[in-house]
Structure formats: C-alpha cells, structure tokens
Fold this protein.
Amino acid sequence: MTNPTPVEWGALSDQEVVRHAARGREAAYRELIRRYQRPVFSLIYRMVRDRELAEDLAQETFIKVLNAIDSYRPEYKFSSWIFKIANNTAIDQLRRRALNTLSLDGSPHAENAEAIESTRLQIGDTRESQLDEVTSKELGSQIEAAISQLRPEYRSCIVLRHIDGRPYEEIAAMLDLPLGTVKTYIHRARNELRILLSETKE
Amino acid sequence: MNPHDPKHLTADELDALLTDSSSQLVASHIATCPACAAMVERDGKLVAMLAVLPYFDVSAGFSDRVMRGLAPRQAPVVAAPVIASPRVVAARRRAIGTLLLAGGGVAAGFAWATAHPADALRWSAPALQDTGHALWLSLQTVVANATEQPWFSSVQDAMATPARALFALAAAAGAYAVALVGLRRLMTEPATDAGW
C-alpha cells in the first residue's frame, strides 16, 4: 500500500484512512485529527463550557482513539466511535467536577418527586412566542448559553442531532441509550431551549 | 395525534414535521390548529438556528500535541546490521596479523627448504627424529593405559568378529545421534508466545 499524497487523503473514506493509521502511518493519524478536531472539540466544548478544559479533553479523546486504532471495527462508522468516546470523556469530566447544571426538569441530583418539583423552573409557555423577537445577531451566543444550561445528556443529544445532524439511531448507538429515550431527550431539550431563549429575551 | 390530547401533535409527529416526512393527517391538523402551527413554527426556527451554529476551532498546534501524546507503536522487527565493537575489531586484527605472520614464516621456511634441500635435511633430521620418537612413546603409553582399563575386555569382546564390530559401531552412532538431538532440544530457547 503506497502512502497517499496530501491531496489523495481527502478523497479517502474514514475506513480507508483508519486502515493506513493502523499500519502506523503518521499522515493518516493527522488526517483523522484534521477531519474530526473541530466537531469533536465543539461537542466537548458545548458540554463543558471551558475552552482550555475542552481542548484537553479533545486531546484525550484523540489519544484514546488513535492508541486503540487497531481495535476499531470497520463495520461501525468511525464518526460514531470517536463521538462516543468524546461524549464519554466529557461526561466523565462533568461527573468528576460535579458541575451543577440548571435543568427545567429539576436538579439531576434530586432524589424524590418532591425534590424534583421544588427544583423545577417555573416558566410559563406564553413566553415562548417571544423567541421570534430575538435578533439573529444575538442569537448564536444566546443559544450557546441556553445549551449550556441543559442537563448533560440533553446537551449531547441536541448537539449531535441538530448541530452535527446525526440520525437518531446513530445517537442512540453512540450514547448507549434506547432510541425512544434519545427521542424523548431531544424533544425535551428543544422545549427547554425554547423556554430558556424566551426567558433570556425577557 | 396525541392519545392524551387528541387535538394536538405528538413529539414524533413534530419530529416528522421537522424532517418533512409528516403525514397528510398531521399537515391538515396544522392547518386548522393555531397552537400546533405556532409550536411547529417555533420548533422549526429553533432547529434552523441550531443547524447553523458554527464549529469551534482548536488552538494552533493541537494536532502536534495529540501526536506527541500517542504511545509509540511497536516498530516491525527488522534484522539490525551486526556492528562489531572496537574491542572486537582490534582482536580480529591481532588474530589476522598473527595468522599472516605464522603463515608467512611457514611459507618462507618451505621456500628456503626447497632452495636448500641438503641444509634443510641436515638441520631438521635430529629434530624430526626426536619428535617421531616422542610421538611413538606417547602412542605406546596411551595403548598400554587403555588395555589396562576394566572396560577394555568388553570392547575387545564386542569387536571380536566383523559383524559384532559393525553392530557395536551402529549402536554407538545411534546413541550419539540421540544424545545430540536431546542436547539440541535442551539448548533451544522456547517460543515467546508458546502458541497461547
């Protein structure tokens, strides 16, 4: 197998690049990093909201993936594999730091129905219509801020579904969740985002 | 439609609308239900806004930092050229020099003896005579010692007839071969993975 020129790397599928990487070719490693550094970093950054930490975790993700490249099974999508590891790395970090996230469904640490109810945000649906008034200039940062307030599992789902455009089935496989749970999370995440954005505007 | 609230859309129906795969029934409901129409519109806007959120860029040198963090891969085993140490090289040179010197001396001796055969014979005769005498004495000693050994009579019996001698030689050769094979097995290093 000859070593492709930089122009040829771009034409290869992920599976083909991985095959080169498994043979220890540095250029293949760099191509995989080039392809996935932005989406992986973006997913992690949206999860942890700390640029330096996100970069460390993205680096950790790539090191885990590339060190284990021999164990990659080509019948699965490489993107699913790397996003799964990226998400797990971010979730582990969030658990370690025990980051407190604000959830409209109540605190994720609440142990009974009463605690959940007492920590639930009371926001009226009538505010949703104000989303229309948010100008597009402010919108990017407001949406990012709203995403950061979602529960981590909602955050992963909404980023993978609506920012990365992954199908539900792939997200379910990545996150080891039932398909129905993924749909529910995404639906709830959208509802929360709408409400949070309305609240921000108000 | 939502079984709990037959008037409005379920989450799946809402998702279907967002991906343009909804049924005619759902579409007709939207047309007649301002609440659902507003919900679909807001969801559509939100999804459109999420879809255009940019990826963030990593800082410069990210790729290099990842590469530095990777475990070194085991390189394929390539037979390395044997490089002799200076000490070995010097020892080889000394050995070659000695051989050349000795060989040169012997060759010069032969050349001189060929050129002066009478002198060579005159000078070497006593030495050859003494050497031959010493060798003969040594041989006699070895034979005398052997004949006095307790096993000598057994060997003599075994060699009494040509057939017996042949059998004894074959048995000795067989024993030697078995011993060689056994020794070789004992000295061979076992495979590292042992097939596991």
